[in-house]
Design goal:
The protein is an alpha+beta fold and 309 residues long. It folds into two domains: 143 residues, no CATH class; 128 residues, 2-Layer Sandwich (Endonuclease, Chain A). It contains twelve helices and eleven strands. A seven-stranded mixed β-sheet has the order 5-11-10-9-6-7-8, with helices on both faces. Strands 1-2-4-3 form a four-stranded antiparallel β-sheet. β7, α11 and β8 form a beta-alpha-beta unit. α2 packs across α3 and α6 packs antiparallel against α7.
């Protein structure tokens, strides 16, 4: 009776060892290009070989290793593998001192490699490796529905994020379009300046500024404009902005054009030929006295003012 118990104990112990070995090998299996593979360095470690010798044996028998048996990773695949799993086999610099990108072997490639090496250790280890691949396939098969549900959840989350962004953008657009007018009192210089900057930032293509008393302070405001947005300033010959300032501005923040007219009394800003703002004070005097900024939504007026630019 004791002998039978000892045999049972021995069998259980061997089974535990085999299970641990299989579990250890499973941790070295990755999914790349839709295939389950092992890194050449991990295969070499299990086979008690140097990595370069493993790959030399493969290249000497290249006809036995089609792409579904063995393939070389790209730099992007190596980076993704390192990022996802932090594999010790892939050192950050030069892939652990290697001068080439690593190869990976599929289950069939590992089986073929054991036959090419003709080494007893390699043959025995390949059996354990193939068992690990089988365990991984069984695990994926049994949990395929769970993985599919996780992918579905990820897809729904991405869709929710996309819809949230759309709603957020729509709310922002509504908030911007809801602006009708604002009155600024003496001393509200920063508040007035901030609103003008917000208006300038909205432009995607063109800004038209009409102001008879403009000076170079407007150039500081225009630094906030989006890149490649064209600016046209209509002013009078008596304004305090110099052509030299315009030239210097254009060297760094093109394109700004200056034109003269005496057909306007009030101040206006037109954004992208479709948004018209009436400003009760010159841009250089924002917040110094009580004034208002109003948005005019009549397309007829926008077209008429645009004709002057």
């Amino acid at each position: 009776m004791e002998k039978e118990n000892n045999n049972v104990s021995l069998v259980n112990k061997e089974s535990d060892i085999e299970k641990n070995e299989t579990d250890n090998i499973k941790s070295l299996i990755y999914t790349i290009r839709g295939k389950q593979v092992m890194l050449d360095s991990d295969v070499a470690m299990l086979y008690h070989y140097k990595t370069k010798n493993i790959n030399k044996a493969m290249k000497r028998n290249i006809e036995r290793f089609p792409e579904d048996f063995c393939f070389q990773l790209t730099e992007k695949e190596v980076e993704n593998l390192r990022f996802q799993f932090g594999t010790s086999s892939l050192e950050k610099e030069n892939y652990g001192g290697r001068r080439y990108l690593p190869y990976v072997y599929t289950e069939q490639g590992i089986s073929m490699l054991a036959g090419v090496l003709k080494n007893e250790i390699a043959i025995q280890v390949s059996i354990s490796i193939i068992r690990a691949f089988i365990e991984m396939r069984r695990f994926i098969l049994l949990n395929g529905q769970v993985f599919q549900e996780i992918d579905d959840i990820k897809g729904k989350l991405l869709e929710h994020d996309r819809k949230f962004d759309e709603v957020f953008d729509e709310l922002q657009r509504k908030q911007e379009s809801e602006f009708k007018q604002s009155i600024f009192f003496d001393g509200q210089i920063y508040d007035a300046y901030s609103l003008i900057i917000d208006i300038i930032k909205k432009a995607k293509q063109k800004i038209l500024i009409i102001d008879n008393y403009i000076d170079d302070s407007v150039l500081k405001m225009l630094l906030k404009k989006n890149k490649d947005v064209e600016v046209v300033i209509l002013t009078t010959q008596n304004s305090n902005i110099r052509k030299l300032d315009i030239q210097k501005f254009n060297k760094q923040y093109p394109v700004l054009k200056l034109a003269y007219t005496n057909k306007f009394h009030d101040r206006f800003i037109v954004i992208d030929n479709k948004e018209l703002y009436h400003i009760g004070a010159s841009l250089k005097d924002l917040g110094k006295k009580c004034f208002a900024i109003s948005r005019i939504e009549d397309d007829e007026y926008i077209d008429k003012i645009n004709n002057y630019s």
